[in-house]
Amino acid sequence: MFKKQVKSCVVVLMAIILCMAALPGYEASAVSKGTSVNEAIGLKNGEVISGTLQNEKEESWYQITPSAQDVAKHTHMQIAVKSKQVLSVSVYPSKDRAIKDDTYSRYRVDTASGETEINFPHAWSGPYYVKVLYLGSEEDSRDEEEDAAYTIGYKGANLPPSEPIFPEEEEPGIIIIEKKHGRQILQSIRTIEDKRFNETADGQKLTRLLQKTKPFLKSKLINNQKKQQTVYNHLLTLKSLLNDVEKNGAFSGHIVTEKEQQAIRSLFDMLKEASPAYLKKELETVGQKVGIDQLEGKSIGYVLEKQKLVPEEKVNTNKIIFKLKDGQTLQSAKKKMKGYGIQENRVTSQSVNPLFKGMYVYDVPAGKESAGKTLKAGKAVIKSTARKLSSMPNVEFAEPVQTYRALSNDAQYGYQWPLKNSAQNSGKKGADVKFEQMNTLIGTSKMKQTLIAVVDTGVDSRLSDLSGTVRTDLGANLIGRNKDAIDDNGHGTHVAGIIAAKADNHYSMAGLNQHTGIIPVKVLDAYGNGDTEHIALGIKHAVDKGAKVINMSLGGYYSKVIEYAMNYAAQKNVLVVVASGNDGIPEMGYPATSKYAMAVGASNRMDIAAEFSSYGKGLSMSAPGSDIPSLMPDGNVSYLSGTSMATPYVAAAAGLLLSKNPTLKPNQVRNILQNTADDISFKAVDGTDDVFYDENDEPVVDPKIPGIDWMTGHGRLNAFAALSAVELNASVNKVEDQHQKVTGKAKAGAAISVYRGKTLLGKGTASKKGTFSVKIKHQNKNKVLHIKMSKGKAATSLKTVVKKGKAPAKPKVNRVTVKSKTVKGTAGAGLTIKVKNKSKKVIQTVKTNSKGAFTAKIKPQKAKTVLYVTASDVRKRESKAVKVVVKK
Fold first, then answer.
1. CATH 3.60.140.10: does it fit domain 728-801?
2. Does 812-885 carry CATH code 2.60.40.10?
3. Annotated catalytic sites, by residue?
4. DSSP class of residue 654?
5. Phi (first) and psi of residue 425, to 5 degrees
6. How far apart are CA 66 and CA 44, in angstroms?
7. Which of 82, 173, 388, 689 is least enclosed, having the fewest CB within 10 Å?
8. Which residue numbers in the chain have pLDDT < 70?
9. Which fold would CATH assign to domain 406-681+692-700?
10. Are 316-368+376-401 and 406-681+692-700 equal in CATH topology?
11. Of 869, 760, 876, nearest to 813 (Cα)?
């Protein structure tokens, strides 16, 4: 990296860079600049260019076009700008976005400290654009503006995946980020600027103004801890206000206090004092418009909404969704509403009608206005109205709309431990989904494309690793009610990257599934929240657009509306894979608990259940979900943890099975994934297991289901074994405790081995007809057997649990006469046949042969003598007796 220095060293460093012209491969060019995007000057790797800006607001443009070798060799471009004047530096992924001034806040920096650096990822196809803008002089007293001389250059770098960072963390001499609440406060400010203000034109203007003025304040703060402490104290005073605006926007009911008013005024004055004259005027205009001195006693949400700095919020939580019983009409229901104290004119079908027949929305009247704001209806009123609707004879059910939340040879491949765990970072070698073996197998297979829907915050399809894979033509934005499902949060893009980021293109990372198209369905907003209606509609949209697998990394409380949508997906043979939840308790969230869902928990690099992963009855399986690197909209590969990250691995694997065999049904896909999973159950070494308690302080008891671990389900995903099972057409028939062979299907010639733990029970080979039968000793009930099969590049292990068998069926006995010296008949193979006299005393015992036939020798019997014949298995379970009367 370009080493950062404090401001006092800037002049020396600039001189050093300029002198580097004599060094090979690192030349400083003559002064040059492009005054617009269309005139951008080409910037080469290792080159340093000098430039001069003479007037405030003057700008220079540069273009970077990395070569294929650069992309293959480096993950990032390190762009460095140095100047004694305050310059704003912005980097853009494309020309179109440069023209729109559309980039991420982490790619907007300044030279307030004398130098700045941007690590910009090779995540788009390029070319990339850099804008250098002169913000003006910090000193207003001079008659003439000082020219802004600067140098700019870039070089390739390899940076590992990381947690999202703040530009402030990389600023020399700025220590606010290190304060106790510094990170949280800066996060709130970042979210307000990037998301709340970014949703309105006036909000965007204010953000751009703040971006221009903050560098001047920062230059005053560098290495001045006293002033930094003053700023921090003011921000600390505003902490609760900022947090409320971050979470609630225009709905913020926070009332500005006297101390907060003073803090706002002081920060505003400090900002204005540090800024050049032209920015001071702009700040004063904004201050007058907002009423910077008259905020005390007002709702900050109301002020922001009135000034159009944040969008007007609609009260979605006032909605109730109700469904009419079959055969009932809305008209007849409306006629009866008045009798139940319900306003019939509050019913609308516009938004939900496409979901299911007879399903409608009721808008609960809002509360009275306060300080110019319409209030939400109280929870009690909403619940009461829902109960009234439910009590109507022609209504099947009614429920309030609820909120659901997101559950959180490529350049970065070496960091993708879920694909190949070589014990990096204290992990467990081999604790992965067997990506490389799976890809080797895929290379010998015919694969079709399968559509997987990501029902989430949207997906940024502009990234090179997702471009062409994301089916924007099939997407939907249920939040904005349009087709633009671009991600304004990051969660959905991270999920999509895990599923399907392009492999072997030298960009960023590799997704598990290279044979899929992603349908982006945006049902969660920029803050990761979404409601019942949006999610239900999102599921239906995904199904109707042809998705065969739906990934839902979100959760909340039970909803009949969403359950209807889940059932709709099941009826259309669509597998819905859902995150179990991140509370780390023996209770999963909804829709993970839906009978139509395949619930997925998270494992870590040590191959045990992640501590945050929710679990319990109904958990299907686990997949890597801790410290998972994947794409973010800003182009970086970042680590995120959660069952949200585990779910897409299973969804991706499910898609691969369907690409190999499109005729598979959801339950077949689920069973293959579960039965090929690797056991990662954990047993306490001290002989005791943790005891968990429910909300009533009652102990929650592990049901101890054979073959299923309570915390990890059927085990951790093994994508190679699952795909091999499909390649080998592998299946195992039911094994009961009396059986002395294991039978099933497999590709002709496949080697078959049956194990109980590490004990080999028997071997065999699949016949030309694609069946196998392996002799074993009968096993006790609830024992877990693993049937390993392999042929060519494919190798799998199917898990089956020995079931308790039933008593054999009654044998079929041939006619017995006075001349007969034998009793003949048929029953199951390997059974014990007992011939008894009328007193039920055994007079002969024989075994059936491999075809089930038996012959029991007896003495000739008199006519009308009564005999009884039974069949018993190895467990001594005896069939009902067949009564035989000896004939003449």
1. no
2. yes
3. 456, 491, 644
4. H
5. 55, 45
6. 8
7. 689
8. 1-33, 138-145, 163-179, 313-317, 348-355, 366-378, 407-427, 431-433, 508, 682-697, 699-701
9. Rossmann fold (3.40.50)
10. no
11. 869
